[in-house]
Amino acid sequence: MVLDLGLPHMDGLSVLKRWRGAGRDMPVLVLTARGSWSERVEGIDAGADDYLPKPFRMEELLARLRAIIRRSGGHSAPVITVNGTELDTKQMRLTVDGVPVNLSPQEYRLVSFLMLNKGRVVSQQELSEHLQSVHFERESNAVEVLVGRVRRKLPVALIETRRGFGYIVPDTASDAQ
After folding, report:
1. Which residues form the Response regulatory domain (predicted)?
2. d(CA 28, CA 148)
């Protein structure tokens, strides 16, 4: 997981501490404009596996990510499960009660981002920024349309809307949408 500490409306270190407190042990590389030695120590003490201050070269980011992957044996938690819905991050496959769900690459990125952040409300802006890294169109309703497409493909209510805040995959998905 690559975490930028400059998240809109929240502090990235708080998010990282919450993840670690909840037992999430996926590898985390922190990116930030905060680059003093004390801030780097604070980030690592909060649970970051590595810390890269901005500006940086893409080659260094990729090298650090390869090192984190090497240290984690190539994966952290390859399968994320919520009420019978399984996301296999190694195979890049989603199944519901063992039945594969056919997703487009954008739909997979949306579902995987929400499931990797399960239990946390993810804003439309954050989703849009995450999806934009692969040439996602930033139209005002593009995220809503994509969420709607994913919901139609799933036989369960996995993604919940928090009006005015964003979307969440609860740790235990509810039947209400």
Report:
1. 1-69
2. 30
